[in-house]
Amino acid sequence: MMGRLSGDQGTFFYGFDLDEQVPSDHVLRRIDAVLDLGWLRTELRPHYSHTGRPSVDPELMVRMLLVGYCFAIRSERRLCDEVHLNLAYCQPFGMGQSRWFCRLGLEDRVPDHSTFSLNRHGRFRDSGLLRSVFEDVVRRCMRAGLVGGEGFAIDASVLEAEASRYQGLPGDETIDWTGPNLDTRAAREYLAALDPEPDRHRKRPKQISPSDPCAAWTAKADKRAQFGCRKSFCAGKRG
User: Fold this and answer.
1) Mean per-residue pLDDT over the chain, rounded
2) What are the extents of the domains in the chain?
3) Which candidate, 118, 126, 132, 221, has a CA 20 to 30 Å from the CA of 143?
């Protein structure tokens, strides 16, 4: 006999355990078994105020970012939607377990997407938190024998910089980046990373951007010349 969905009112109380919904071999369960973020709150404490309303738990944000990296979710807005709706439908890659991985109960609120950008450009950046998480993961991989650490390969892509191609200055011109109009955090970080004794034999660029010291004058095949930034991807050598 053909079955039919019941239109009756559902029950008021359910016996539900999020942990039982996560398969034993799920990738998030394997990550959770070795992920240790106990040091995170101590490292970030100096970057939070001692007064005011409690903030969003930084461990929750890092766990959500890890979910985004694992499932190639580049948009933080979409990431928040996925974590919020993960129990409402079945995702092809098993995203239904992300709420469990983030330690969120069925009634807990998911942070707004703007929280990520504020923290990424604020206390996360000032404290170097994301670099610390990355280095901690690399150390764990080395201890597990997954990465040897004695060699690496680099690939890179050139991304268009937020700098006008029409406002470039000749490469031999000197710009005072410490001036009040140009003393931005991006400029300070760039200057701090420069070698104390630059290579005298290095060729001067044709054009420099007066708004972004990191931008380089570049051109791809069949594309116009513009200011771009190089984004590198590193891969470690296995032991």
Assistant:
1) 76
2) 18-143, 152-195+203-236
3) 126
